[in-house]
Amino acid sequence: MANPDQKRLMLKEMQLESLFETISAINANKSEEDLYTIYKLTLSSNPSITNLILFVIDEESQEFERFVNYGSHDHDETVNFPKAFKDYISTTNIINHPDGFEKFDTIIPIKHKNEVLAYALVGTADQHSDFIDQGFTEALSNIILVAIENKKLARKEEKQKEMKKQLTIASHVQTMLFPKELPYGNDVPVSVHASYMPHHSIGGDYYDYIPLSDTKFLMSIADVSGKGVPAAILMSNFQGTIRAMARRGTDLESIVHEANYQILESAEGENFITAFFMEYDMETSNLRFINAGHNPPFLYHKNKFSRLEDGTTILGSFSELPFLEVGEINNLQEFFVFGFTDGFTETYNDEDEELGDDKLEEFLTANIDFQQKEMHKNLIALLNTFKGHQAYADDITLLSCKVDLSKK
């Protein structure tokens, strides 16, 4: 029979071999589950250790969860980490035992960069107490937990890289959604200008100008609920539907019905879109429009403003739109339409006051004779002054259209 010194030597040899095996497993990129298993088997093979639990902090909940469990203690009573154990900041003997933890005598906080990642609880048999090596237990715990923490960080970095890649793709997709050129100038019958300020790298706003013939065009502005990649994809589907049907000569009502159906199919009711569509024919001087739950654009005609409100509800919430009214104005030879998304009017200042539609109308009235680019520039400057130290809460899109058939 081996004497105590021989037993200690055998234990040291076993511990050294275990460390080599553990490091080899880490270098072989073993899974977290495998590393926890190695940890459990290594420590439980020491006859001095009769009970073992490893509580590891969860990144999201910031609560300690049990990942390793061994021994004769009541396994049901030791599922949750006792709050009293958080007071232990160094390896020490347990003084006050919470219910279910009476068979544990040592607590070992496992730290990484001064933050406690885990707590190892160890229970020993009295007859083997001489052979407990707390230093080894702590070293093994540190090696395993740091390796697992590195795995978590690697996953997080990989996830961030993938997210960045998706955002880059989505940003590129969104850029492609906007028309490359808009008719603009002081000597053309139709002049269109747009300003777009995304709140994040990927916004949820959209605008478009689609020539339908030499004398007819469709203009639209929209805002999707939600942000990021899903919003960009939904807007891409929305734009594809609108452009495809418009260029086939589909009437405005059918375009809106089909857009509603496609949004509902794509988003499954989780997102919706507010939109405004305007169709103008220079040959007939006829303006037709549908407002689908969007902020009503301003129409300036014969020295006064009105709002373009006729239409329907938001798109993507109902399988069939509950109502649909097409607004129509005849004999429009000269007019100005200004559309915007709610990110503009719902901007707040330091006094918690909202910019609102009234201030926007006051500005448009005072600046109606300005060129559109200058008007947009001044309007954004007004907004920046108004908001003070407050951040923009949403994407902002401004879209204006000036028609003067005398310049044909």
From TrEMBL:
Gene3D superfamilies noted in UniProt: PPM-type phosphatase domain
Top-rank taxon, per record: Bacteria
Pfam families named among the record's database cross-references: SpoIIE
Record SMART domains: PP2C_SIG
Keywords carried by this UniProt record: Hydrolase
GO molecular function annotation: phosphatase activity
The keyword Chaperone appears for this protein: no
Residues in PPM-type phosphatase domain copies: 187-403
Record PANTHER family: STAGE II SPORULATION PROTEIN E, STAGE II SPORULATION PROTEIN E-RELATED
Stated name of the protein: Serine/threonine-protein phosphatase
Coiled-coil regions listed in the entry: none
SUPFAM superfamilies from the UniProt entry: GAF domain-like
Keyword Hydrolase: yes
